[in-house]
């Protein structure tokens, strides 16, 4: 389903009517669900000004991920990798959008049990979401790979680039370059994220798949895990994900589809 600006008002009204009907069905399924969860990707943050890293204007168009975003590259030359991380930090200076806030409201009001996000921007938490599994890590904390010391983003912000570990005595500082707690391409998903994802998945019979093409594993397997247990997949994307085969597709930008779904769910629940 696509809305072309060249279509006449009648066609646009029919498209909107179909979208409205699909949104009402998705809301009814949410009301019926014993436990619903959400899986989000880069598409939920593009309207906050964060380009998809894989897009033509994204981070990987400027930095080869094999050269700048692997743990091997970091261990070999952390100073070089930090040239990419500086750019990442600049990109992630963003604010939650209307979609983030609507999804947070849906969770707060009992519509979903929580969110598994592939994003590292922290915008779900800024919007008010409380149960968020950061599957690919977070840019809000940093770790020294040499001694294991951990640092908050606020501490690192006051350091020169590349930031270095200050643990140890004045005469024997660690001084290793710090790494943000984001998952690099050749790193394993952190065990706590896998554990928390399994807890959210337990008993889930509906998953909202939002802003992700479900191409990156193991996160891409989450919707199919819900389906394998007899659950439904509701997809909210600009275009249908090629391999998802969702039960219901809501087309459009996150800032439109999510507030509409929240409003429809509130009406359905109030009946």
Polypeptide structure, described:
The longest helix has 24 residues, at 9-32. Strands 3-2-1-9-10-11 form a six-stranded parallel beta sheet, sandwiched between helices. Strands 5-4-8 form a three-stranded antiparallel beta sheet. It contains eleven helices and eleven strands. 40% of the residues lie in helices and 17% in strands. Strand 2 (115-117), helix 7 and strand 3 (132-134) form a beta-alpha-beta unit. Helix 1 (9-32) crosses helix 11 (254-269) and helix 6 (98-108) runs parallel beside helix 11. The chain has a domain at 8-50 and 95-136 and 188-271: 3-Layer(aba) Sandwich (Rossmann fold). It is elongated, with a radius of gyration of 20 Å. With 271 residues, the chain is an alpha/beta fold. The chain has helices at residues 9-32, 59-62, 65-68, 71-76, 78-91, 98-108, 123-127, 153-157, 191-201, 221-228, 254-269, and strands at residues 36-40, 115-117, 132-134, 137-144, 150-152, 168-169, 172-173, 178-182, 206-210, 232-237, 248-251.
Give the arrangement of secondary structure elements.
Elements: H1 9-32, E1 36-40, H2 59-62, H3 65-68, H4 71-76, H5 78-91, H6 98-108, E2 115-117, H7 123-127, E3 132-134, E4 137-144, E5 150-152, H8 153-157, E6 168-169, E7 172-173, E8 178-182, H9 191-201, E9 206-210, H10 221-228, E10 232-237, E11 248-251, H11 254-269
Parallel strand pairs: 1-2, 1-9, 2-3, 9-10, 10-11
Antiparallel strand pairs: 4-5, 4-8, 6-7
Helix pairs in contact: 1-11, 6-11
């Amino acid at each position: 389903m696509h809305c072309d600006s060249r279509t006449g008002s009648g066609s646009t009204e029919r498209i909107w009517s179909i979208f409205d009907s699909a949104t009402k069905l998705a809301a009814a399924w949410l009301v019926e669900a014993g436990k619903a969860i959400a899986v989000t990707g880069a598409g939920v943050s593009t309207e906050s000004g964060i380009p998809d890293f894989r897009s033509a204007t994204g981070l990987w168009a400027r930095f080869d991920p094999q050269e700048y975003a692997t743990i091997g590259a970091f261990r070999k030359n952390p100073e070089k990798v930090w040239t990419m991380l500086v750019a990442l930090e600049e990109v992630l200076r963003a604010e939650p959008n209307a979609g983030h806030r609507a999804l947070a409201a849906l969770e707060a009001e009992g519509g979903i049990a929580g969110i598994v996000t592939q994003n590292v921007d922290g915008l779900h938490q800024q919007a008010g979401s409380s149960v968020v599994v950061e599957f690919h890590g977070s840019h809000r904390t940093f770790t020294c790979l040499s001694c294991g010391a951990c640092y908050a983003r606020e501490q690192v912000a006051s350091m020169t680039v590349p930031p270095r570990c200050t643990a140890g005595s004045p005469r024997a500082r660690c001084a290793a370059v710090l790494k943000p707690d984001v998952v690099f391409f050749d790193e394993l998903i952190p065990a706590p994220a896998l554990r928390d994802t399994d807890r959210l998945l337990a008993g889930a019979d509906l998953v909202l798949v939002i802003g992700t093409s479900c191409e990156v594993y193991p996160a891409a397997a989450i919707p199919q895990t819900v389906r394998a247990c007899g659950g439904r997949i509701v997809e909210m994307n600009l275009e249908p994900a090629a391999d998802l085969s969702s039960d219901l597709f809501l087309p459009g930008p996150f800032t439109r589809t999510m507030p509409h779904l929240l409003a429809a769910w509130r009406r359905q629940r109030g009946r």
